[in-house]
Design goal:
By secondary structure, this protein is α/β, with parallel strands linked by helices. It folds into 3 domains: about 45 residues, no CATH class; about 160 residues, Rossmann fold (3-Layer(aba) Sandwich), CATH 3.40.50; about 60 residues, DNA polymerase, domain 1 (Orthogonal Bundle), CATH 1.10.150. About 45% of the residues lie in helices and about 10% in strands. It is built from 14 helices and 9 strands. The strands form 2 sheets. Strands 1-9-8-7-2-5-6 form a 7-stranded mixed beta sheet, sandwiched between helices. A two-stranded antiparallel sheet has the order 3-4. The N terminus is likely disordered.
Length: about 280
């Protein structure tokens, strides 16, 4: 159970409070034509309303106090980096190698998030032939090892967001870590190659522990290594896997909608939802 916190309106800075008010304003957007017709809205308020509804907003289901957060755990693919195209190319190279038809990129993208073995199995249609799955996985890993950085890049604004999140207002720097379901070696190689390594104390992958997300083992290990209580930690990710990991470990959860699986966040809502890396940085101020 998370500790109970004061309502957002009592805790937020002016900027965050404005966004909450904007969210409330959006809820009445459908009434705008009627109100205008009746002459119940002035020109000045109409201009203010237009500014509100076009503003970027952080959606808060459960507010946490940024000053209390000491550890922030990040998913990798779809959260920090856009690796979609390289994963699609690798899956289709594997399928060609096996003499199978290629899959549309949008379909492959829905298979990402549970680690390489599950991605391969899904792309093959979940066959009963385990020998085929092993053969396909070996090819996938070998191909991806050579092509993991062909098109993969950091999302715009992520380095600035990480730099901002690392510095807390109470003067105590936060610890940042990566917990991915991608195998650990390519995860670390990508983080290093894309010049993100300086931000992270630890980078763990899907084979770093005996279980993967949403099992809380990796998150709990990070809590232990950093001597951090669950209520002082947040996990940030683009899918329900990350939200469930946070819930299972007792962490606060933040979802990002710009990644691979924003649709899964509708059924498994995080404590906070953001649309951009800039909003992510603002959340921790």
């Amino acid at each position: 159970m998370h500790e109970q916190v004061a309502p957002p309106s009592r805790r937020l800075s002016g900027g965050r409070l404005a966004r909450l008010r904007a969210r409330d304003a959006l809820a009445t957007a459908g009434k705008m034509p009627t109100l205008l017709k009746l002459g119940l809205i002035s020109d000045s308020f109409r201009s203010y309303f237009a500014i509100l509804i076009t503003a970027s907003m952080i959606r808060i289901n459960r507010q946490f106090d940024p000053a209390s957060i000491k550890l922030v755990i990040f998913d990798l693919d779809g959260t920090l980096i856009d690796s979609r195209l390289d994963l699609i190319h690798t899956v289709n190279a594997m399928l060609r190698h096996l003499g199978r038809p290629q899959l549309p990129g949008d379909v492959i993208a829905t298979y990402v998030g549970d680690g390489a073995p599950m991605l391969v199995r899904r792309a093959l249609g979940d066959p009963e032939d385990e020998g085929l799955v092993r053969q396909a996985l070996n090819f996938f890993l070998a191909y991806y090892r050579e092509h993991k950085l062909d098109h993969t890049h950091v999302y715009a604004g992520i380095p600035q967001a990480l730099a901002a999140i690392r510095q807390s207002n109470n003067g105590q720097p936060r610890t940042l870590a990566v917990l991915s379901n991608k195998p650990v070696n390519p995860s670390r190689a990508i983080v290093e190659a894309l010049q993100l390594a300086e931000f992270f104390a630890q980078v763990y992958g899907g084979n770093s522990f005996t279980t993967k997300k949403p099992d809380p083992l990796g998150a709990k290990n990070l809590l232990r290594e950093n001597e951090c209580r669950p209520k002082s930690a947040v996990i940030v990710g683009d899918s329900s896997n990350d939200v469930l990991t946070g819930r299972n470990a007792g962490l606060w959860t933040v979802g990002v909608t710009y990644g691979f699986a924003p649709q899964t966040l509708e059924l498994t809502p995080p404590d906070v939802l953001v649309d951009t890396p800039q909003e992510l940085a603002e959340l921790f101020r």
